[in-house]
Structures are given as structure tokens and as C-alpha cells.
Amino acid sequence: NRLPLFLCSSLHIVIPIASFTKVERVREACFDYIAPFGIVSLIAGTFLATNYYPRSLLNFELNYNVAIHCLIGFCGIYIIASNFVKFKLKNYWITNVILLTVEVLSLIMIKVNLAYPVYRSGGFESNYMFLRHDGGTPFTLITSFVKGNTVLYTLGVIVIYHLILALFYIVINLIVLIVKRISLKKKQALTK
Predict the structure, then answer these.
(1) How far apart are CA 65 and CA 68, in angstroms?
(2) Contact indicator for 26, 94 with CB cutoff of 8 Å
(3) Is 10 helix (H, G, I), strand (E, B) or coil?
(4) Which terminus of the chain faces fewer neighbouring Cβ atoms within 10 Å, N or C?
(5) How many other CB atoms are found less than 10 A from the CB of residue 1?
(6) Is the pTM of this model over 0.85?
(7) What are the C-alpha distances in Å from 27 to residues 69, 83, 84, 95, 100?
(8) Buried b (16+ CB within 10 A) or exposed e, 155-173
């Protein structure tokens, strides 16, 4: 009874797009989205979720949550290990559009869930991507920083998601640049 508009479950939308699209740049951008957010979901959904939501180890919802996040994290790690991730700078804007689309859909559905009580009574979660409130997650730092202002909180969370994406792009491109320089120096040393 939930839509796949959480950060981790948004990968359920992006993975099929990456699998079935014929446009190579869109496929690469989808993989660039899946890899970092798969790893973030793995960390947030296993380690952090068990710390922030202490429940019995026999709790079905907790075990289901951890299993789903481990699977999503595996997808992210597998995509990196299989060298599907390119993090080409020319695809950065496409990856940001994917993230922005999920964020906008999440904000719309938060408003729909709040406006129609039938959804709230049906057990629907109205805090997609933690854009409405922190829910006991590390986003409590943002809540305390903006002193409870919901608009600034939402903007802060959106900025953090985009910073995570930018950080992955920067780090991967720096690693690629360093590896190319080292291999170039080795080639030059061999030719001398």
C-alpha cells in the first residue's frame, strides 16, 4: 500500500528503465543513479534503520526492510563491480533530472496523502524520501538546524541528495583521472 517514492524504492523504477531503454546516455545516467543511492540505501536501511527503529529481531517489518535494503545495496555494488557505472560528466544533468523527478513526485504524493484522509487511514506513508519530516533519521540534524521550518527542512534534504550525487561524480572522476595519470607515467617510463 505504498508507492515506490522513497529513495531506496525509487530504484525499483530506475532499474527497469536502465534495463529496457535503448538510449545509451539514459542507461548510463540510470546506472549512475542506482550505484550511489543503492549504497546509501544499504547503509541507511540496514545499520541506521536498526539503530533508529529498535525492534525485536523477530519483527517481520524490520527484517523485510533490512532484506530489501540489502538487495538494493547489492544492486548498487554489483553495478559498480561490473563496471556499468561511468559517471560521465555529460550525463550528470540526466541523473539529476531523474532524482529531481522522484523528488517532485514524492512531494506531490505527500500533499495528496495529507489532503485525502482516506489515504491516511489506509496506512499510506506520507513521508516519501523523508521530505516531510526526519522520522528519527540522521536528517534530525537538518530539523534542528532549521529549527523545525518544514520548507527549509525539505529544501535541505533535497540539497543533501544532490550533494551525495555530486560527491560520487567528483570522487569517481578524480579516481579515474589519477589512474589515467599513473598509467600514462608508467607508459612514459617504459618508453624511455
Answers:
(1) 5
(2) yes
(3) coil
(4) C
(5) 7
(6) no
(7) 22, 13, 9, 10, 17
(8) ebbbeebeebbeebbeebe
Q: How far is CA 62 from the centre of its chain?
A: 20
Instruction: Locate 148 and state its grid cell.
Output: 523545525
Task: Give residue-wise pLDDT tens across range 106-115.
Answer: 898 888 877 7
- The answer to whether 14 touches 26, Cβ cutoff 8 Å, is no
Angle (CA) 102-106-112 rounded to 5° is 145
- At 3 the three-state DSSP class reads coil
Instruction: Return d(Cα 48, Cα 50) in angstroms, integer.
Output: 5
Question: Would you give the DSSP letter of residue 89?
Answer: G
Residue 77 burial by CB count (10 A; 0-12/13-18/19+): exposed, middle or buried?
Answer: middle
Rounded to 5 degrees, φ, ψ at 55 are -140, 175
3-state secondary structure of 84: coil
With cell 544492486, the residue in question is 75
**How far is 173 from 45, CA to CA, in rounded Å?**
27
Q: How far apart are alpha carbons 80 and 31 in whole angstroms?
A: 9
Quote the distance between the C-alpha of residue 92 and its chain's center: 15
Q: What are the two backbone dihedrals, phi and then psi, of residue 149, each rounded to the nearest 5 degrees?
A: -70, 115
